[in-house]
Design a protein that fits this description.
single chain; 134 residues; mainly alpha; 4 helices
Amino acid sequence: MSVLQIQQNFKARMTLSTRSAVLSLYMRVFRIARAWQAQTGIMSDTEAERKYIVQEARTLFRQNQQLTDQESIRRCIEECEARIEIGLHYRIPYPRATYLPPLGLATQKGRKLRGQQRLRKQAKPVYLQSHDET
């Protein structure tokens, strides 16, 4: 067996295991949505939160379905798992707020702005990596 064949077999196995992990997460999100109960106990709130969970999952999974890089797929899986755990822990399906790093308001020019953009990107939590600007 050549090195190329070994690499192709490894890639195929990684793809199948990654695919099963992603599908498992996708189904887990829908099971959570089906059983979701709002903290308020009001049925309209529960339905709105269930609808949000399903819509958000569909949007993010479709947005990332063309990814082929194993590292970016791993980051998306970690983000999904983090959002699930945070949502279940706090009983709130919506992403938690993030705050600007210190000195968050820079002038709109030059190095300070680039530095602030870099800090904001570094300060973004793992569960919000799919969102452009929070």
